[in-house]
Design goal:
Blueprint (H helix, E strand, L loop, with lengths): L8 E4 L5 H12 L3 E6 L2 H15 L3 E5 L5 H11 L4 E4 L14 H29 L2 E6 L12 H21 L4 E8 L5 H14 L3 H10 L9 H11 L11 E4 L9
Parallel strand pairs: 1-2, 1-4, 2-3, 4-5, 5-6, 6-7
């Protein structure tokens, strides 16, 4: 399918690996020029070089911490009013409700709520002026059904979801869509870290921990970054203009809900 976005420019955050990279590669395959961001310069440059070689699109890299105001300013300057914005940031650490204090919550809000909001506020005006734009926020299945050990993530990402619900409907008349992608467990470093945590807590192997988690997913497997990225690319396409303010689960059926 021709997504109709060849030649447009996308800013994709946290895109040197994992789900962010999956989104970047899918957009590049559709002919979109990219501005990629991550904190680690070496991994980011390696990803950019691979994408340039494979898809022949322009790729600019900005190795900064996008959760800081300085990092945001540098990324936005490089992106120069992108047509497409994909926000993404690593999730806060797991734990119990009694483990966290105010500083922990502020850090989670900065990374998983306030940073996406700041980037949207910076990019939306130009999108609206042009009459076309796409924003996709990578959040989590936890905004549909909370994950007890991820209370920091539950709180911050649900706050972002509430913000998007109202904002998406305000910018839609100008041809701009905002939607959220809600991943379940995918085969990324984040999943590996969570499995290792279970492995230590239960004194079992990491493979056993992974198998246990896969058994709770109706699809009986982890998702892949590639299939996640293709869903993101479709939401950014010319064909998705009537999808507004939605929270789309990619979890293999793990969230047990009717709606």
């Amino acid at each position: 399918m021709d997504l109709g976005i060849r030649g447009k420019r996308a800013l994709v955050c946290a895109s040197s690996k994992g789900l962010g990279r999956g989104c970047a590669e899918a957009l590049a395959e559709a002919g979109v020029d990219l501005v990629l961001n991550a904190r680690g310069a070496e991994a980011l440059e390696a990803t950019a070089e691979e994408i340039r070689g494979r898809y022949g699109v322009s790729v600019t890299t900005v190795a900064v911490d996008v959760t800081t105001s300085e990092g945001q300013a540098e990324v936005l300057e490089a992106a120069a009013s992108p047509d497409i914005l994909v926000t993404n940031a690593g999730g806060p650490p797991p734990g119990l409700w009694s483990d966290w204090d105010r500083a922990d919550f502020i850090a989670a809000l900065d990374a998983n709520m306030l940073t996406p909001i700041a980037l949207m506020k910076a990019c939306l005006p130009a999108m609206m002026e042009r009459g076309w734009g796409r924003v996709v926020n990578i959040t989590s299945q936890s905004v549909k059904a909370p994950i007890p050990v991820l209370g920091l993530s539950n709180a911050a990402r649900t706050g972002l979801t509430g913000y998007v619900a109202g904002t998406a409907r305000q910018v839609a008349p100008e041809g701009v869509t905002i939607n959220n992608l809600l991943p379940g467990i995918h085969a990324t470093d984040r999943a590996k870290s969570l499995d290792e945590g279970v492995s230590r807590a239960q004194n079992i192997s990491a493979d056993h921990a992974k198998a246990q988690r896969e058994g709770t997913i109706p699809a009986r497997r982890y998702g892949t970054a590639a299939e996640f990225g293709q869903t993101c690319a479709f939401l950014c396409s010319q064909h998705a203009g009537f999808i507004v303010g939605q929270n789309i689960l990619l979890d293999g059926g793990a969230t047990n809900a009717t709606i």
